[in-house]
UniProtKB/TrEMBL annotation:
Function of the molecule: This is one of the proteins that bind and probably mediate the attachment of the 5S RNA into the large ribosomal subunit, where it forms part of the central protuberance.
Pfam assignment, any one: Ribosomal_L18p
Record lineage: Bacteria, Pseudomonadati, Pseudomonadota, Alphaproteobacteria, Rhodobacterales
Keywords: Ribonucleoprotein, Ribosomal protein, RNA-binding, rRNA-binding
Organism: Marimonas arenosa
GO molecular function: 5S rRNA binding; structural constituent of ribosome
Subunit composition and interactions: Part of the 50S ribosomal subunit; part of the 5S rRNA/L5/L18/L25 subcomplex. Contacts the 5S and 23S rRNAs.
Protein name: Large ribosomal subunit protein uL18
InterPro entries membership: Ribosomal_L18, Ribosomal_uL18_bac-type, Ribosomal_uL18_bac/plant/anim
Family the entry assigns: Belongs to the universal ribosomal protein uL18 family.
A cellular component term, taken from the record's GO annotations: cytosolic large ribosomal subunit
GO BP field: translation
Annotated gene: rplR
């Protein structure tokens, strides 16, 4: 019997998260969530259980509200890189969740790398 898209997504998300746990060793995690309308990301310290910084297309100061494209994702990536520098984070693991590393997710990661965040 074929799995539904949701079941495949959840299996992929758990597979990615478990691989990250094996190699993480207390580093910060850049977690990405993409919906049909928006994309958001967070820098998470799993040891302390706190969010250090976040960025989203829902923020007015980024000027991308209502835009659901690769350019908006790139702006979110540069914003999270700037906020990571302010929080004192220079290196993080990229947690794409169950999303494929393609399109908006890839644009966000590339923009974060260009902004100085080592992923």
């Amino acid at each position: 019997m074929a799995n539904s898209k949701r079941e495949l997504f959840l299996k992929r998300r758990l597979r990615v998260r478990n691989k990250l746990r094996k190699v993480n060793r207390g580093k910060i995690r850049l977690s990405v969530h993409r919906s049909n309308k928006n994309i958001s990301c967070q820098l998470i310290d799993d040891v302390k259980g706190v969010t250090l910084a976040s960025a989203s297309t829902l923020e007015k100061d980024l000027g991308v509200i209502g835009k659901n494209n690769v350019d908006a994702a790139a702006k979110v990536g540069t914003a999270i890189a700037e906020r990571a520098k302010k929080a004192g984070v220079s290196e993080a693991y990229f947690d794409r969740g169950g999303f494929l590393f393609h399109g908006k997710v890839k644009a966000l990661a590339d923009a974060a790398r260009e902004g100085g965040l080592k992923l």
